[in-house]
Structure formats: structure tokens, C-alpha cells
Inverse folding.
């Protein structure tokens, strides 16, 4: 749909809390007529095209989540090693050290799911469930790691002197776009049940 098409209006979108570098727009359609040459793919097959694209973009979301989670973990580890309380590194306190261990373990699990799905994609054997698992795990791990990194930093973690508040704020949308976490779980369970006529 080209701008200037009669009945098609592009209006300024809403201000987003996450990913402030992105802009969005409101598209209004009022009795628009689309020329035949503007049709992408086959008529009535648009959902299939969109569904094919979603798999690749789910892997892209997973990969970007991994990068940001890794950055948040790195900040948390460095702060836990540098910050001292009661004469020792705060990373030596069990409450902090167990957080770091859980963050690292969950991030590794998300990495492995994403790498496997990417490898299967290259081999031509990837399933919707593979991509859904990667996206679901990576986006939920990013949320957990960002939140725990801020917890380790205390109030300083929410200051915009550090990238943690932005990583934490931007993490929220990752569990929504390209299919919510609930949609990913639906895709995974559907593949599990399909051999049993479910």
C-alpha cells in the first residue's frame, strides 16, 4: 500500500516505553482499493507467507535477546566482583552468587536452544516448535537476567548511567512481538500433541 493511495492515511503512533529508537504509526484504511500489481504472493495466502517469515524473525528475536542478556550478566558479574560489603566482594555472599549462577545457567540453556534452531534452519530441518522454544526461552531469560542484574546493583541499576535500565525496559516487549510467550507455548504443545491426534 503506497502512501497517497485514496482512503489510506498514516498517522503518528503511540510513544513506546520499550525500544524508544523505533517509531510506530497508526495506519487507517477507509474503503481503499489496492491495485493488482501491489499484491505480494498469492491472493488469500498472506497468512502462510507471514507465518514463514515469523520463524526467521523469532530466531532473530532470540539472538538479540541473548546478546543483551549476556551484556547484563557481564555487568552483574563485574559489579559483584568490584562492590565490597563487610570486607568482601558482594559476589561471595550466597544471595548474590546463586543469582549469578542461575543467570549463567539459564543463559546457556537459551543459547543452546537458539543455536540448535539456527543450525536446524541451515539444515532445512527446523520446526515451528524449535523456533518457538528458542524465542520463548531467550526472551524470558533476558527478562530474568536483566531483572536480577538490577537487583544485584541495587538502586544504581535503575540509573541511566548504566545500560541495565534500558536492557530491562526493552526486554519487556520481547515476550510480546513475533508471538507472545503464550503463543510460543501453544506452538510447542501443538507439535507435542499432533502425533497423538491432538
Amino acid at each position: 500500500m503506497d502512501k497517497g493511495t485514496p482512503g489510506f492515511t498514516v498517522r503518528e503512533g503511540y510513544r513506546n516505553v520499550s525500544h524508544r529508537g523505533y517509531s510506530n504509526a497508526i495506519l487507517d484504511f477507509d474503503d481503499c482499493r489496492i491495485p493488482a500489481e501491489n499484491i505480494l504472493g498469492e491472493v488469500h495466502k498472506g497468512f502462510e507467507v507471514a507465518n514463514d517469515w515469523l520463524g526467521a524473525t523469532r530466531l532473530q528475536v532470540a539472538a538479540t535477546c541473548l546478546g543483551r542478556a549476556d551484556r547484563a550478566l557481564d555487568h552483574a558479574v563485574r559489579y559483584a566482583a568490584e562492590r565490597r560489603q563487610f570486607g568482601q566482594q558482594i559476589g561471595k555472599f550466597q544471595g548474590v552468587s546463586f543469582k549469578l549462577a542461575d543467570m549463567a545457567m539459564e543463559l546457556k540453556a537459551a543459547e543452546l536452544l537458539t543455536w540448535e534452531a539456527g543450525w536446524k534452519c541451515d539444515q532445512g530441518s527446523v520446526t515451528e516448535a524449535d523456533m518457538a522454544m528458542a524465542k520463548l526461552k531467550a526472551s524470558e531469560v533476558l527478562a530474568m537476567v536483566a531483572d536480577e542484574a538490577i537487583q544485584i546493583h541495587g538502586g544504581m541499576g535503575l540509573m541511566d548511567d548504566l545500560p541495565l535500565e534500558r536492557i530491562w525496559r526493552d526486554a519487556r516487549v520481547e515476550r510480546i512481538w513475533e508471538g507472545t510467550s503464550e503463543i510460543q507455548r501453544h506452538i510447542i504443545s501443538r507439535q507435542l500433541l499432533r502425533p497423538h491426534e491432538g
